[in-house]
Write a structure and sequence with these properties.
single chain, six-stranded antiparallel barrel, disordered N terminus, Peptidase_S1C, signal, PDZ domain-containing protein, PDZ_6, protease
């Protein structure tokens, strides 16, 4: 079962940028002018041929695209559409689920590829105009979907988002009123100079006119390591959902009934933790024989029941460190060596973190 992309306007570059839009250009206060400048660098992310989110090219020479982790997590077949072109394969260079950031790379060079320039999100003030660009999910053929813009103002330039059991704590976001729809995740939030000041990430259910983008100044220092393939915070277990989450079933569209039954059955066995939706092939989690459907209950002798708790441990661990993980099976399982386990039985694994 795969969790839905968050609106969570659903899931970032210390690299000095060359080319793109330079600071000597005139201000582009008109949203249409901003759109014309940055839309060519904004891509639609496709997973299995279906629209899944948005990304933005930040290094055209290397073909590097920034998006949210939750847009690409657990996906094995990724492509992007650039303007009116056809789908182009991409691969995930690295992702950080605890920051909800990921970098993907074009499989083949693209002529005349455009890139966005980073601005200073720290210069934003309440009331400043911002423009969001993205590919909202529609009901039609993805080959005909177009990037769209929404405009708004900064409501708070520095907001810490915490308290979500199945989402990472985000220490620095920009709260604004530029509407973010499903599919906008990973797209750029732009200031009046057409420079990137945020990565569009989520909205909060039950609120209107409040949307959140990971601050550009927070994302930039993380990109160099991600571009080098460093992913200490990503052992390869994907889509962690807290079993205690009252919205657990909503992460599995089309399978809500089965998800609710699983949640209740696991709780009846006295098990609490985070449910693993998928495990990347060839990841350190896969090498430790972890699999989709596992529940993680302890990491490094510490109980974990939420994604932020998992992230706290990963972020405080050293690159290359071996960590002990405990968990439980959610279904009866048979192994290649002829042994078996029943739902509720416990397991243990040792995972070596990336460098």
């Amino acid at each position: 079962m795969r969790p839905i992309a968050r609106v969570c306007v659903t899931a970032v570059s210390a690299i000095a940028l060359s080319g793109g839009f330079t600071s000597t250009q005139a201000r582009a206060d008109d949203p249409d002018e901003i759109f014309e400048k940055v839309a060519p660098a904004t891509v639609q992310v496709l997973a299995g041929g279906e629209a899944d989110g948005t990304g933005v090219v930040y290094d055209a020479e290397k073909g590097l695209i920034l998006t949210n982790d939750h847009v690409v997590a657990g996906q094995t077949s990724l492509q992007v559409r650039i303007e009116d072109g056809g789908p182009v394969p991409v691969r995930v260079v690295a992702a950080d689920p605890c920051e909800d950031l990921a970098i993907v790379k074009l499989a083949t060079p693209q002529d005349d590829l455009k890139e966005v320039e980073f601005g200073d999100s720290g210069d934003l003030k309440q009331g400043d105009q911002v423009t969001a660009i993205g590919y909202p999910v529609g009901a039609g053929d993805t080959s005909h979907e177009k990037a769209v813009l929404t405009t708004g103002v900064v409501q708070s330039p520095e907001v810490s988002q915490t308290g979500q059991v199945s989402s990472p704590n985000l220490s620095s976001t920009v709260q604004h009123s530029a509407t973010l729809n499903p599919g906008n995740s990973g797209g750029p939030l732009l200031n009046s100079d057409a420079k990137l000041v945020g990565i569009n990430t989520f909205s909060i259910e039950g609120t209107q006119g409040q949307y959140y983008s990971i601050a550009g100044d927070h994302a930039k220092p993380l990109l160099e390591g991600l571009a080098e393939g460093k992913s200490k915070n990503n052992p390869g277990w994907q889509g962690l959902v807290a079993l205690s989450d009252p919205n657990f079933a909503s992460y599995f569209p089309g399978q809500e009934t089965e998800a609710t039954k699983l949640q209740k059955a696991v709780a009846a066995k006295g098990i609490d933790g985070v449910y693993v939706t998928s495990v990347d092939g060839h990841s350190v989690a896969a090498k430790a024989n972890m699999a989709a459907g596992d529940v993680i209950t302890d990491i490094k002798d510490t109980k974990v029941t939420t994604l932020p708790q998992v992230c706290d441990i990963l972020q405080s661990s050293a690159p290359g460190e071996k960590i002990d993980v405990l968990g439980a099976y959610t279904s009866d399982t048979e192994f290649q060596d002829g042994t078996s386990a029943k739902a509720g039985d416990t397991w243990s694994a040792t995972v070596t973190l990336g460098r």
